[in-house]
Design a protein that fits this description.
With 669 residues, this protein is an alpha+beta fold. The protein has 24 helices and 23 strands. The mean pLDDT is 86.
Length: 669
C-alpha cells in the first residue's frame, strides 16, 4: 500500500473506531464484537507503524503511551469553576422566590440533575479537537491532567460535528468517576494483590486521574459525564437554555446523565429529590443529592455569581448513610505484603442494613488527620456502600479518658522491626513473619489461584503455627498422617485436603502465576501472561519492554513482574514447585467461545462455579462478575439472584445449564 492509500485508510479507520468507541463507552450499545473491534485497532496500529508520519494526536491509538510526567502542571480555567451552595429541601421555595425576584420572571423553568460524587474537570477543544484537560483545583487554576483524561474512552478526541459548525474554542465541564461495579472489581483486584482497598469510588477516581504515568490511569476503569458548555463569545453558543446545552453535548459525542429532568415549580423538585433518593441504590454511580439549575442561559447572566458560587444553581443533598457508635479498641493487622493496617473495633451498629463491628483506619496519617482515639464516639459509614469506614469523630462527647493511637515500632506478630514506607508502615520480617506467610499461603490456595479446597484461613493458621508449613513449597510435602493428629482434622478431611493439594498441581499456568502473589498481577493479568508465554521459564526471562507489548500491561505492572522474577528467593520457590510437579506450561486450546463473555447466577447442577469458569476460559471466553453491556450470555442455575433481573433489563441473552453444556460440548464429527 502506498502512502496516499494508507493515509485514506487510516482516516477511514479512525472514523470507524471513534464511532464504535462512542457506541460502546457513551451509549452502551455496541454494534460489533470485541474481536472485530480488535481487528480494526490492529489494522490501524499496523498502518501507523508503517507510516509513522501519518500518526496524529487525535488517533484512537494515542490515548495511552505518553511518558510519565515528573509532576502535574497547573493551568488556568477559561472561567472560574465555582462550587454550589447547598440548601435543604425546605429551603427550596425561598431560593426559587429569590430567583424570581432577581429576574422578574415568574416560574422561569429549571433543569434537575443528579449530584454525582466524582472529580470535577474542564476539557478544552480547539476546532473540534481535544487539546487540554484540568481538575477543578482552587476554582481558578487546576492540575493539568490532559494526558490522563485522554485515556478515558468516553472522552471524544474529536467532536462528532462538522468543524465549520463549531466555535473555534469550546470548554466543557463534567464529572470523572468510577462506576460502582467497576469500583468493586477494582478493589477486589487490589485486595488480591495485597494492596489496601480504596475507601470510596470518588477517592479511587481522583487518585487515578492524578497519576503521573497516564498508562496507570488507562488501567483504571474511569468514565465521565458532562454537564456544561462554555465559549469565549457567548453569541457563538447555538443554544439558549441549559436543557438545549445538554442535548448538544450529546450530539457532540459526550456522555450526559440519563436522569436529567425539567421542572416548573417546587413540587416537581420535591418529587425529583424523593425519586432520586429512592433510586440511588439502583444507580451504577454514587450520588449525594440533586442539583437545580435555572434553565434559561440569559437569566444566568442576570443572576450572576457570588465570590465562589453561582446564584442560578443550588444543590440539595441527601441525608448521609451513617450511624454513631464507639471505638472499643484499635488493633493492627499485618497483610500479605507486610503492610500494617490499623483497624477500629467498634460496638456493633447497623449501617444501611449491615451490622458493622470493624472499620479500616487506613494508615497513621488518616488517624492523625481525623484525630481518632480509642474510646471515641464516631460516625461510621459504608464507603461506596461497601467498605465500613470512620467518617467523623464526635469530639464534643469526649470524657478525657480516650487514648491516642501509636503505631508499634515492631511487628505485633513476629517482633521484626517496622519501617515507614511512604504513608504506610511495613513489617520487615518477610515470610519469616507468620502473618505474611499465612496470608501468602492462603492466597496461594484461594479460589482464584490454585483452588485448594480446605486450605482456608484457619487451616493455614494451624499448619504454620504447628511448624508443618514454613514456606509455600511445604504444602506439597504434607502427608495425610501429618494432618490426622491435628484438631479440625479426621481421616476423611485430611484425605480430602491432600487430594485437593495433589489436584492443584495440574491447574492452568495462569492460576499458578496469580497464586504467586506478584504485586499488581490479578487474575486477568495472569491470564494475559499465560496466553503470551509458552511456559514459566519464558515468562521469568521476559524483560519489561517485552511485557509492555501485551495489551493492558503498562509500565508499572511490567516493572513489578520483572522485579518479582529477578528476586533469587522467588526463583527458588518456583524451582521447588517445578520439582514438586506443578504445571509450568501453558495449554493452548482452540474453542468456539473466543471473546465471548459469560455471567453465572444461581447454582449449577453439573459444575462448580470455578469449574464452569475454567471451561469457558479454556475455550477462549471470559467470565464476568457483574452485569454489564459487555456480557454476551447469562447462565441461569437454581435460585438465581438479582443479576437475572438486571440482565433482562439489558436484553442480554439468557440460557440455562443445558444450553450452556450444548455450547461447550464438541460438535459430532
Amino acid at each position: 500500500m502506498d502512502r496516499e492509500d494508507a493515509k485514506e485508510r487510516i482516516e477511514e479507520l479512525k472514523g470507524i473506531i471513534r464511532y464504535h468507541d462512542h457506541l460502546y463507552y457513551v451509549e452502551n450499545r455496541p454494534e460489533i464484537s470485541d474481536s472485530e473491534y480488535d481487528r480494526l485497532r490492529k489494522e490501524l496500529e499496523r498502518l501507523e507503524g508503517e507510516f509513522p508520519d501519518l500518526v496524529t494526536e487525535d488517533s484512537p491509538t494515542q490515548r495511552v503511551g505518553a511518558e510519565p510526567a515528573r509532576e502535574l502542571g497547573v493551568v488556568e480555567h477559561t472561567r472560574p469553576m465555582l462550587s454550589l451552595d447547598t440548601a435543604t429541601i425546605d429551603d427550596l421555595e425561598r431560593w426559587m422566590k429569590r430567583v424570581e425576584d432577581l429576574t422578574g420572571e415568574k416560574d422561569p423553568g429549571y433543569v434537575l440533575e443528579p449530584k454525582m460524587d466524582g472529580l470535577s474537570v474542564e476539557l478544552i477543544y480547539e476546532k473540534g479537537e481535544y487539546v487540554r484537560g484540568s481538575t477543578r483545583g482552587d476554582g481558578i487554576r487546576g492540575e493539568d491532567v490532559t494526558r490522563n483524561i485522554k485515556t478515558i474512552k468516553a472522552v471524544p478526541l474529536v467532536l462528532r460535528k462538522e468543524k465549520a459548525d463549531l466555535p473555534d474554542l469550546i470548554a466543557v465541564r463534567g464529572e470523572v468517576l468510577m462506576e460502582l461495579s467497576e469500583f468493586e472489581s477494582y478493589n477486589r483486584e487490589r485486595i488480591e494483590k495485597g494492596l489496601e482497598p480504596m475507601a470510596n469510588p470518588r477517592n479511587a477516581a481522583a487518585g487515578s486521574l492524578r497519576r503521573l504515568d497516564p498508562r496507570e490511569t488507562a488501567e483504571r476503569p474511569l468514565t465521565i459525564y458532562l454537564y456544561e458548555i462554555l465559549v469565549p463569545d457567548e453569541s457563538e453558543l447555538p443554544v439558549n437554555t441549559h436543557w438545549e446545552a445538554l442535548g448538544i453535548l450529546k450530539e457532540w459525542g459526550f456522555r450526559v446523565n440519563e436522569n436529567i429532568r425539567k421542572a416548573d415549580g417546587v413540587d416537581d423538585v420535591r418529587n425529583y429529590h424523593r425519586e432520586m433518593a429512592e433510586k440511588r441504590d439502583e444507580l451504577e454511580y454514587e450520588i449525594d443529592g440533586i442539583v437545580i439549575k435555572v434553565d434559561q442561559l440569559g437569566l444566568h447572566r442576570v443572576l450572576g455569581t457570588r465570590s465562589r458560587s453561582p446564584r442560578w444553581a443550588v444543590a440539595v443533598k441527601f441525608p448521609p448513610r451513617e450511624e454513631e457508635t464507639i471505638i472499643d479498641d484499635i488493633m493492627v493487622q499485618v497483610g500479605r505484603t507486610g503492610k500494617l493496617t490499623p483497624v477500629a473495633l467498634l460496638r456493633p451498629v447497623d449501617v444501611h442494613g449491615v451490622t458493622v463491628s470493624r472499620a479500616t483506619l487506613h494508615n497513621l496519617d488518616f488517624i492523625r488527620e481525623m484525630d481518632i482515639r480509642k474510646g471515641d464516639h464516631v460516625k461510621v459509614k459504608r464507603a461506596g456502600d461497601v467498605i465500613p469506614e470512620v467518617s467523623g469523630v464526635l469530639k464534643g462527647k469526649r470524657s478525657g479518658e480516650e487514648e491516642e493511637f501509636r503505631m508499634p515500632g515492631t511487628c505485633p506478630v513476629c517482633g521484626s522491626d517496622v519501617v515507614v514506607d511512604g504513608a504506610y508502615h511495613r513489617c520487615t520480617g518477610g515470610l519469616s513473619c507468620g502473618a505474611q506467610l499465612k496470608r501468602t499461603i492462603e492466597h496461594f490456595g484461594s479460589k482464584g489461584a490454585l483452588d485448594i479446597e480446605g486450605l482456608g484461613g484457619k487451616t493455614v493458621d494451624l499448619l504454620v503455627d504447628r511448624g508443618l508449613v514454613k514456606r509455600i513449597s511445604d504444602i506439597y510435602r504434607l502427608r495425610r498422617w501429618d494432618l490426622v493428629s491435628l484438631e479440625r482434622f479426621g481421616k476423611k478431611s485430611a484425605g480430602n485436603l491432600i487430594s485437593s493439594i495433589d489436584e492443584s498441581r495440574e491447574k492452568p499456568l495462569s492460576r499458578l502465576i496469580f497464586a504467586l502473589g506478584i504485586p499488581h498481577v490479578g487474575e486477568s493479568t495472569a491470564r494475559l501472561l499465560a496466553d503470551r508465554f509458552e511456559d514459566m521459564d519464558s515468562l521469568m526471562k521476559a524483560r519489561s519492554e517485552e511485557l509492555m507489548e501485551i495489551n493492558d500491561i503498562g509500565g508499572v505492572v511490567a516493572d513489578s513482574i520483572s522485579s518479582f522474577f529477578g528476586e533469587e528467593s522467588n526463583r527458588e520457590v518456583i524451582s521447588e514447585l517445578k520439582e514438586l510437579g506443578l504445571n509450568m506450561k501453558a495449554v493452548r486450546r482452540e474453542g468456539d467461545l473466543e471473546n465471548k463473555i459469560f455471567l453465572f447466577t444461581g447454582g449449577l447442577e453439573n459444575y462448580t462455579r470455578e469449574e464452569a469458569k475454567e471451561l469457558v476460559e479454556g475455550l477462549g471466553g471470559r467470565v464476568a462478575s457483574s452485569v454489564s453491556d459487555e456480557v454476551d450470555y447469562v447462565v441461569v442455575g437454581e435460585n438465581p439472584g438479582s443479576k437475572l433481573s438486571k440482565a433482562k433489563k439489558k436484553n442480554i441473552t439468557i440460557i440455562d445449564e443445558k444450553e450452556f453444556i450444548d455450547m461447550i460440548s464438541p460438535s459430532p464429527l
